[in-house]
Every structure is written in C-alpha cells, then in structure tokens.
Amino acid sequence: MTQTTPLWEVFIRPRNGLSHKHVGSIHAADEVLALQAARDVYTRRGEGNSIWVVRSADIFASDPDQAGENFEPTADKVYRHPTFYDIPDDVGHM
Amino acid sequence: MALFDAVLELADDHLVLGHRLSEWCGHAPMLEEDLAMPNMALDLIGTARTLYDHAGRLEGAGRDEDALAYTRGEREYRNLLLVERPNGDFAHTMLRQLYFAAFMEPYWQAALSSSDSVIAGVAGKAVKEMAYHIRHAGEWVIRLGDGTEESARRMQAAVDALHPYAEELFEAGAETGVLPSREAVRPAWEASIARIFDEAGLRAPSVAYPQTGGRQGLHGEALGPMLAEMQALHRAHPGATW
C-alpha cells in the first residue's frame, strides 16, 4: 500500500492562538481523504480544532549526517542566550 | 405507545448499523479506515443508547436500554433491511453508510424542532455526526466509482445490490407527529445521492420490487446470526457489569 498510497504528515492545532504541531502520519490517496483520515486517527479525544496535512514527499529535511556541522557550532556561543548578560539592579524589570 | 414504537425503530436502525460497522474493527483494508469505521459505529451506538433509554421510559414497563437491545429476538427488531445487510466488500459498506447518513442528516435537521426534548437533543448532536458520515462515505464512493476499472465495477455492483433497499427508508412505519415525516426527507436524500453518483459516474438501477419488511420485523437471514453474536454475552450473564 505504501507504494501506491502516499504518506501524509499531520499537524493539529490544539486551540486558537497556538501553532499547529506535528502529531504523526497517515496514508491517503489525496488531500481530501488525508484530512478525513487525520480527523479519524488523531482527533478522537478532542485534540484540536484545526488540521493541516502535508504530503511527506514535499518535506525537505536536514541530513542527519550533517547534524554536527549544522548544530554543534552553536553549543559554545553562550552569549546568544539572554541569561548570559548581567543586568544591573537599577535597570529594574525589563 | 405509538411514540415508543417509533423511537424503537430509530434506535434499532442505529444499533444494527453500528454493530455492522464495528465488525470491521481489526479487519479494515487500511489502519486509517480501521479507526474511521469504529468511530462512526460509536456515533451510531451512542445515539442508539439514548434512544433505547428514552423508549424504555416511554414504555414504562421497566425495560432499560440493555433489555431492549439484548433481550429482543429478530422478529421484535424493527430496523430497516438496509442496515442489517452484511458488510460485503468496502464498497458495499461505504454505500450502505452513505444511504443511511444521507437520510438521517435531513431527518435530524427536521427533528431539531421536535416537541420531544430528548429527540431534539439527540438531533442536535446527530446532525453533525451524520454530516461527517455523508462526507466520509461519499468521498469514498466518488473515488471508488471514478477510480480504476476494478473499483468502478465493484462500486456499481454495490449500488445494484443495495439500491432495492433504499425505498424502505421512506416507509412510514410507526410515525407520530413528534418525529419528522420520512417521506418529507426524500428530496434531500435524492439530491445528495444524485450529486455523489454524478461525480462517481454511478447509475442507480430502476427497482421494480423494493425490499421492505423490516418495520414489521420481517428480516433477511443475516440479522439472526448478527443478533446472536451481539446478544450472546448479555444472555449468558444477564445484568453483568464491567
């Protein structure tokens, strides 16, 4: 079935004001059936009020082999975090 | 008593179709439908429970929802022949669901203004559930009808097999002024089916001899074994709770 029925990634928004969050994937022939399948599989317990589906093949992902060069260089740059800076007491609340 | 009988007919339709759909659990052609069909079954069984409870109170003979669902035999069931039809292939199941939901959605719309507050309450919830069942089943009917040669052949075979059972939807049965007229729902049902068949490339056969009898308790041979399985636990252990 995986060969003939495309895979879709499902994103659900739990409530207004929050962002859609990835919850899993489903198989479906097209976008209409994908939304129905997502509704039936992932919203059975009141998980949300909006669904996005995206064809898995349309997602371009970073290469795990490049994880080192992508993400490790940030590890020693503590000055990028606001907590790195001492705020003088007389500044008050920022 | 007339209202008791009318509510019981509705409850039986929902329980029998709900049980039929639940038979797919663990056997559906794909995981997504393995969840979708029990979801729809639970909608129907939930409605059936409220209706049986209501019927039991109307009757006033001390029968609760379990007594009505589990201790009546085949001849006492008043459901449509359509809903007891065996699941067949996926095309048969989706078509049966479409025929029923396309009838119940406008029926519940009309029931929203019923003078019976339980019926109006059930209608408020069921109208949304039936709208989804029409969409879910309808989209499958369109894709199978307008799909491959094989899927189109099997979808049309389902239409040819089940269409003779459609007319019974509009049969008067034990109706009272408290519930909507079934005949009045016909134009909405026909419009839904025509729209979907048009997109699906399906033809409704002309039916010389509509199949009826469910409202009189005259059922096909498939209902008995289904009830036997559904009622076995309760009959072996009456009053058991879990």
From TrEMBL, chain A:
This is 1,2-phenylacetyl-CoA epoxidase subunit B. It comes from Thetidibacter halocola. Its EC number is 1.14.13.149. It is an enzyme of class 1 (oxidoreductase). Pfam families: PaaB. Coiled coil: none annotated. The keyword Mitochondrion does not apply. InterPro entries: PaaB (IPR009359), PaaB_sf (IPR038693). GO terms for molecular function: phenylacetyl-CoA 1,2-epoxidase activity. Keywords: Oxidoreductase.
TrEMBL record, chain B:
Pfam families: PaaA_PaaC. One of its GO terms (biological process) is phenylacetate catabolic process. One of its GO terms (cellular component) is cytosol. The keyword Oxidoreductase applies. Its EC number is 1.14.13.149. Keywords: Oxidoreductase. GO terms for molecular function: phenylacetyl-CoA 1,2-epoxidase activity. The keyword Oxidoreductase applies. It is an enzyme of class 1 (oxidoreductase). NCBIfam families: PA_CoA_Oxy3. This is Phenylacetate-CoA oxygenase subunit PaaC. It comes from Thetidibacter halocola. The lineage of its organism: Bacteria, Pseudomonadati, Pseudomonadota, Alphaproteobacteria, Rhodobacterales.
